[in-house]
Amino acid sequence: MQMSGRRKMDMVLSAFREIRQNRQLDLPEFARAIQQQLKIVCEPSGCAIMLIEGGKTRTIAHDGMSGYDCGIEIRVDAAALGALRNQQEGLMANHTDDSPLTGLIPAGREAKSTLCVPVMQNDVVVGLLYLDSQTSDAFDWEDLCCADLMAEELSLALQRSLIEARVSKLSKMDSMVGCFNRTALEEDLRNEIARSKRYEKEFSLFLLEIDSIDSKEDDPDAKVDDLLRSYLAGVFRRNIRNIDRIYYYEGKQFMVILPETGKVEAITVASRLVEMVRNKPPLDPEGLLRHKMVTVSIGITGYPDDGNSNGELLNANMEALSQAKSEGGNRLFVYGERRTAVDALTAM
Questions:
Q1: Which of 150, 172, 268, 342 has minimal Cβ neighbours within 10 Å of its Cβ?
Q2: Total number of domains in the chain
Q3: Which domain-ending residue is among 171, 188, 211?
């Protein structure tokens, strides 16, 4: 027995209020909350919430939709998507034979009624709310109204998610130097330890420090140190692999994580960086670094040999760097070795 329109609308408004109270949830949890409310109000046989990113469609929440597992890419009919884009509002078909929504019905699925609402941002379809039923005339205007409201809330949640991602990234960047900061290092190092432990992999870690600068003239400007850090961050980025990550640590120090890299390979990379900095005078648009001879020292450690936690590895790096500096700088030192890394390379 179908409920009255007034009672249905009361359920729609109740569901809307419930969703608004859950705005603090992250995007996947928020999508699941929307899917649950749609199931209560609209009573579909199946429901799926999908996002469209870079031309690919993936499910982030579903119920009663076999083959629509979360994260799996879904093929969406271009004609059906075009109809939704042109309408920029939901479409409902209680007899699917001649409906443009037919192209959205998963292969092999029996559906006699469908309801689909686009999630819009700046006139672009960025997601879909899809409901279907195995009975004809399953959906009404109140169902469409409920799905429209939920799509608007999902659009807002997407915007919040993007803003939060940008803020999170900015909070982990050092804007002056142009690379990740110590906060990002602590988080990424913990993750790399966990990943390497799980898959029984090794990785290496550099601590680099700019040695004292030899200059043929007095510094003309106080921003020379900032320019030098920024310049060297660029040199390091350009001369490590894409999977390696560089961080500004503090003062004149940088850290580099080299995933799935043993100490022998790490020594080769570090030696190349030391030589490159020593043999290539720095350049900058303003010429403030002209005539400056710059060198760096590097301490090298490796997981799991030199530590199994952030603290152990960072302390070992500090010791290795201190040893390199105590021998005059402009060199690298491997933690636990009695010889400099340059000596180790010669002996290999």
A1: 268
A2: 2
A3: 171
Q: Name the nearest CA neighbour of 286 among 346, 227, 238, 217.
A: 227
For residue 98, the domain's CATH number is 3.30.450.40
Q: What is the pLDDT of residue 158?
A: 85
The verdict on 141 and 192 lying in the same domain is no
Q: Which domain holds residue 265?
A: 174-347
Contacts of 118 (CB under 8 A, 6+ apart): 84, 85, 87, 88, 89, 90, 125, 127, 128, 151
**Distance (Å, whole) CA 348 – CA 329:** 22
Under DSSP, the state recorded for 100 is G
* Overall pTM surpassing 0.70 (yes/no): no
User: 341 and 192, same structural domain?
Assistant: yes
CB 130 within 8 A of CB 47: yes
Give the pLDDT confidence of 164-198 residue by residue, as tens digits: 777 777 778 887 788 889 999 999 999 999 999 99
Residue ranges in the chain assigned as alpha helix (H): 5-20, 27-42, 78-87, 141-171, 182-199, 224-238, 263-279, 310-326, 341-347
CB under 8 Å to 209, separation ≥6 — which residues?
A: 251, 252, 253, 254, 296, 297, 298, 321, 325
The per-residue pLDDT for 12 is 75
pLDDT over 60 (residue 83): yes
Do 133 and 209 fall within a single domain? no
Helix H, strand E, coil C: the string for 128-145 is: EEEEEECCCCCCCHHHHH
Which string of DSSP letters, residue by residue, matches 271-333? HHHHHHHHHS----TT-TTTTEE--EEEEEEEETTT-SSHHHHHHHHHHHHHHHHHTTSSSEE
Q: What residues contact residue 154 under an 8 Å CB cut-off, 6+ apart?
A: 30, 31, 34, 49, 119, 127, 129
